[in-house]
Structures are given as structure tokens and as C-alpha cells.
Amino acid sequence: AASGMGPELAVDGDGASRWAVATADRKRADSWLAVDLGATREVGEVTLRWETAAGRGYRVQGSADGERWEDLAVYPAARARSHGGWLDVDGRA
Fold first, then answer.
1. How far apart are CA 75 and CA 89, in angstroms?
2. What b/e string do you get for 19-34 counting C-beta neighbours within 10 Å, with b at 16 or more?
3. Where are the domains of the chain?
4. Can you list the positions of beta strands (E) in the chain?
5. Pick from 45, 40, 44, 38: which is nearest to 93 by CA?
6. pLDDT by residue (tens digit) across 75-89?
7. Model pTM?
8. Is there a contact between 15 and 29 (Cβ–Cβ < 8 Å)?
9. pLDDT for res 28
10. Shortest CA distance to 5 belongs to which of 57, 16, 87?
11. Residue 15 DSSP class
């Protein structure tokens, strides 16, 4: 993560803070962030709030065990629809 922009800031509820990939890693295509929901939960929507340098392509994945991951939504793709900043997904995480 970039200095002062650790992964805990991705889900802290503060719209003024954010997680960011380290500058040296920004050209890599394999940057990722995992969020542990603490238990199996139904997931109907995921909100991604990008800064100016938004991702050109990304996946939202879910896993019940933290080892086997399943694509819930892939962007760009026809099945990944965005409505006012919400990305529609169907699955359990």
C-alpha cells in the first residue's frame, strides 16, 4: 500500500480516506485487496469509490474459505452493471 493509505482505510467508512496501491506497483495488473466479512454473508452490492486513477479492469470475488475464489463480477463485462456507483453482484462471500 502507499504510505498512509493502508488497506484498513478501504472499509473505514470515511469518504475522505482511501486505500491505494504503492506507487511502484501501480503499473502491475495483479494488485488486490481482500476484505474479511467475519462470516459467510449474502452480498448483493459492492460499492467502489474510485479516485481519479480508476481501475480500467477489475474483478469482485468471493470466497467461503479464503482459499478458493469465485468471480462475482468482472469489469468490463456485460454482466457487471453499475447503477449510480453500485456494482450489482450475485453470490456469497
1. 11
2. ebbeeeeeeeeeeeee
3. 1-33, 37-93
4. 42-47, 58-62, 70-75, 82-83, 86-92
5. 40
6. 875 454 555 555 555
7. 0.63
8. no
9. 66
10. 16
11. T
